[in-house]
Amino acid sequence: MNNSLIIKPINASETWPIRQKVMYPNMDIEAVKLPHDHQGLHLGLFKAVSNKIIGIVSIFIDHNELQFRKLAVLENEQGLGYGSYLLRYVFEYAQSQQVQRVWCNARLKKSKFYQQFGMISTDNHYKKNNIDFVIMEKYLE
Q1: Does any domain span residue 99?
Q2: Which domain holds residue 91?
Q3: Computed over its alpha carbons, how large is the radius of gyration of the chain?
Q4: Is residue 121 part of a domain?
Q5: What single DSSP character describes residue 68?
Q6: 16-59 pLDDT tens trace
Q7: 97 close to 67: Cβ distance less than 8 angstroms
Q8: pLDDT at residue 112 greater than cutoff 60
């Protein structure tokens, strides 16, 4: 799979259409912009043949912690392992940056996906935009 896929840095603005389409289709594009987008590392997952962006994730490092946000794969590309490919990259990047903790605000209904990568649900649950979230984390060695 990895010969046909490329992960590379993109501008925050390139993430917004995919965030909106996949995560918040009934909301305005302004709703998917993060206050600190300018401080993040934004990655796009591209199909090498078409150079078409099919997935995104945004990474924010603060001291010894890496938070990934807005991991999304286009709906017609889901179920093919692309989200897993992006998340594995996030963990590899975290190790290269020698952070101790990787965490995210996971949609509760997606928590099993993150558990496959050793992430554990915390006791921090909340609701935003009528969506249930849980903070999930993984400590790296």
Answers
A1: yes
A2: 2-104
A3: 14
A4: no
A5: E
A6: 999 999 998 998 999 899 889 999 999 999 998 888 999 999 99
A7: no
A8: yes
Which residue type, as a one-letter code, is found at position 36? H
Q: Are strands 41-47 and 52-62 parallel, antiparallel or unpaired?
A: antiparallel
Q: In this predicted structure, what is the pLDDT of residue 1? A: 53
Residue 36, helix vs strand vs coil: coil
CA nearest to 22, candidates 72, 68, 60, 86: 72
In this structure, is residue 123 part of a structural domain?
no
Cβ–Cβ under 8 Å, residues 71 and 56: yes
Mean pLDDT of the chain: 94
Count the domains in the chain. Answer: 1
Q: Name residue, tokens 């993109």.
A: 10
- The answer to whether residue 117 sits within a structural domain is no
CATH of the domain at 54: 3.40.630.30
